[in-house]
Amino acid sequence: MLYWLTGLSDGGDxxxxxxxxxxxxxxxxxxxxxxxxxxxxxxxxxxxxxxxKGQPIRDDGPEGHFVKAGxxxxxxxxxxxxxxxxxxxxxxxxxxxVWLVLFVTMSFAAIGFADDFAxxxxxxxxxxxxxxxxxxxxxxxxxxxxxxxxxxxxxxQYKLALPVFKDTLINLGYLFVPFAMIVIVGSANAVNxxxxxxxxxxxxxxxxxxxxxxxxxxxxxxxxxxxxxxHYVPGTGEILVFVAGLVGGGLGFLWxxxxxxxxxxxxxxxxxxxxxxGAIAVATKHEIVLAIVGGLFxxxxxxxxxxxxxxxxTGKRVFLMAPIHHHYEKKGWAEPQIVIRFWIIALILAxxxxxxxxxR
Length: 360
Prior knowledge:
Blueprint: H1 21-51, H2 76-90, H3 96-122, H4 130-151, E1 159-161, E2 169-171, H5 176-194, H6 202-219, H7 222-228, H8 239-257, H9 266-284, H10 287-293, H11 295-314, H12 324-330, H13 335-355
Helix pairs in contact: 1-2, 1-8, 2-3, 2-8, 2-9, 3-4, 3-9, 4-5, 4-9, 5-9, 5-11, 6-8, 6-9, 6-13, 9-10, 10-11, 10-13
């Protein structure tokens, strides 16, 4: 919205700053951060009052989790609210990729909200049916995949770009949309599975989104793409403004989610943020890089898949409990120890993913 202030500029005054993505990204970050600090505690008070017993705790979960009974959930509303406000205020609203990532984020937030509401109102950990959640998720992701393809350059439409191999494109044709659906839905659910300890999911999400934001900015500038020898996707640079809002909102949420958490993110936040990561990857043609940058989420999701398949086949468990962060809890690791070590892993993987821009 504020981008239109550039119409008041003569090219050498304060209003000219609004032309720059980096300036508006800084504004989006600060707006989302302040939003989180201002509305965080009032939102927690409302959630605590309306939810009563808070998020239900799994009976078969680690024993240490029972002390968290009564903690309200749906804290993702704070992140989503900060992100939406900052993006609408600072991003160019004529950019289709901005609306693409907002559409995916808000749609998955709505699914997550319905799931959280069902859990809290019924005091049951099951929530909305998994089939319904997946069905709606794939529908949203299918729309987003087709949407992204329409705004990709002609030479990149319906194609998969590979990291490191600069000239390699795999023409997926009509399979691109189903592929994009798997990326977005897989990302959303992987982040959802990671959200099991205080502060565990939000920091890796911020790290991964910041990395993807840098990539989006790079592939959206023709001079950067020529230097780095990566594919140019016009318009994706504006996604950096969205990412800045996400990081600012995430920090505002982490202020209240730091151990011991005053509020949980809930599916409202985890599905929304995971979907956002997948949408950014599809928009920027860096779907494979997402698997590297978000490697922590991939491992968390794989641990659940392996556990379920192996148990069905043998009746035995590979891990003491899945997702894998619960396995380490069962082994006696302290919660802050797990969280911080997983943050370190997320940062390392992000640097590896970022390096693919240069390694060609």
